[in-house]
């Protein structure tokens, strides 16, 4: 259940501050062919931020090349980067950016008080233009996060070619 909903200025303030991921990257099976890794965050002084968490999800099927990076603050998804060249969605007409527009492919969800995390902006790079690790560090740059431990690529599997 979400905690007290933050204002947009509180979210912007939180995003502007340097934060660090506070655990070693260890992927776990999440069911339905997905892997997940999550961590709490710490501030510049090394103090845990109990209301903040990052969750990474990857589809194990290497051919699909589909994954997401999510930053939660006070129980709310404030920034989510979805990497999936074929995903289609339509923004609500009340979104501040790209109102009512259909977005195809990679996109960034930007939380706002009126629409929650329903508003997205396109990320104009093909999914396979970056490795998973490059997307990870790209996302960290978007949300002002640092990861100082060993990076581990999710253990993806090769599947048989699809016949249809």
Overall mean pLDDT stands at: 91
Low-confidence stretches: none
Number of helices: 2
- What portion of the residues fall into strands of 2 or more residues? 25-35%
Count of distinct strands: 11
Main β-sheet: number of strands, strand sense, barrel status? 9 strands, mixed
Shape: globular
Concise description?
The protein has 164 residues and is mainly beta. Helices cover 13% and strands 34% of the residues.
Topology:
Layout lengths: L7 H9 L2 E3 L6 E2 L4 E9 L5 E12 L7 E7 L2 E8 L4 E3 L11 E3 L2 E4 L9 E3 L9 H12 L1 E2 L18
Parallel strand pairs: 1-11
Antiparallel strand pairs: 1-3, 2-3, 3-4, 4-5, 5-6, 6-9, 7-8, 9-10
Structure characteristics:
mainly beta; 2 helices; two-stranded antiparallel ribbon; nine-stranded mixed sheet
What does this structure look like?
- With 164 residues, this protein is mainly β.
- It has one domain.
- The protein has 2 helices and 11 strands.
- Strands 1, 2, 3, 4, 5, 6, 9, 10 and 11 form a 9-stranded mixed sheet that branches.
- The protein is globular.
- The chain starts with 7 loop residues before the first helix and ends in an 18-residue tail after the last strand.
- The model has no long low-confidence stretch (mean pLDDT 91).
């Amino acid at each position: 259940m979400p905690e007290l909903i933050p204002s947009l200025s509180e979210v912007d303030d939180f995003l502007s501050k340097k934060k660090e991921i506070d655990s070693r990257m260890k992927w776990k099976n999440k069911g339905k062919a997905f892997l997940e890794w999550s961590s709490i965050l710490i501030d510049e002084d090394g103090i845990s931020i109990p209301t903040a968490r990052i969750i990474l999800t990857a589809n194990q099927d290497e051919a699909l090349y589909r994954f997401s990076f999510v930053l939660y603050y006070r129980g709310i998804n404030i920034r989510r980067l979805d990497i999936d060249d074929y995903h289609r969605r339509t923004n609500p007409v009340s979104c501040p950016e790209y109102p009512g527009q259909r977005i195809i492919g990679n996109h960034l969800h930007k939380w706002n008080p009126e629409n929650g995390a329903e508003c997205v902006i396109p990320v104009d790079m093909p999914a396979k233009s970056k490795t998973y690790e490059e997307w990870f560090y790209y996302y960290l740059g978007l949300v002002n996060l640092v990861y100082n431990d060993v990076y581990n690529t999710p253990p993806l599997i090769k599947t048989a070619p699809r016949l249809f």
